[in-house]
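Justification of computing resources. Each target in the renewal requires a structure prediction run like the one illustrated here; the chain below, 252 residues long, is used simply to show the kind of job we budget for.
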Amino acid sequence: MPNHRLRDAFLRNGLTPASVAERLDVDPKTVERWVTQDRIPYPRYRHAIAAIVREGEEYLWPDAVSPEKAARIGQSELIQLYSRRIAVPNDLWHRLINRAERHIDVLAYAGLFLVEQEPKLIDTLKEKAAAGVKIRILLGDPDSDAVKRRSIEEGAPDVMAAKIRNVMQYYDRLQGVKGVEVRHHRTTLYNSIYRFDEEMLVNAHVLGFPAPHAPVMHLRKLAGGDLFGTYADSFDRVMSASDPAWVKEVAA
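Resulting structure tokens:
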């Protein structure tokens, strides 16, 4: 059975088995077998190919790393654990945002703190989008049951919906910007997720505690690890069930 993911990655990057073989100093027939017969390369070649096509090894070869090894590697993906979000240094947020070159993903109910502590955030996101960074902002639907429930759990009914409407006044400036998606979800969140390329801040949600007073994990993706990927997959699931924040007008 062919490795369709590997074949697609080669095509998207203008590569052929022969050109990859030349870069890796291996026989072109060997590379052809990796594609057409789904042979799994040795680790050193997997690392090199993943770097060339800018994809994760776990995506290109899902069966290459055992669950036990993936779990061990995942432990090393945890850079720092902060007991509260307010303990995360502001300059860390600033560095992650400004250094992002491929992805900026935000999944929260409101995430109002982000625009408050980064006054130039919207302008920065516009610049990033113009440079080719893919930006996805997922905020709670202010009229959803999940938002109402979260607000009640924090002991402040209706406050969360007000925060979302407030932060949308900032994100409205991104309407029509190519490369930027702002969407609303109706999901019960167990974590807020902030991804910047291969680093991520995951803010746990704790019953009865506002997000600023809940723990945050700082993760960095490693080849073969499964912790970072778990939260990246969670983001994608919420993304697939979300709706655009701005409804396009239909011409009469």
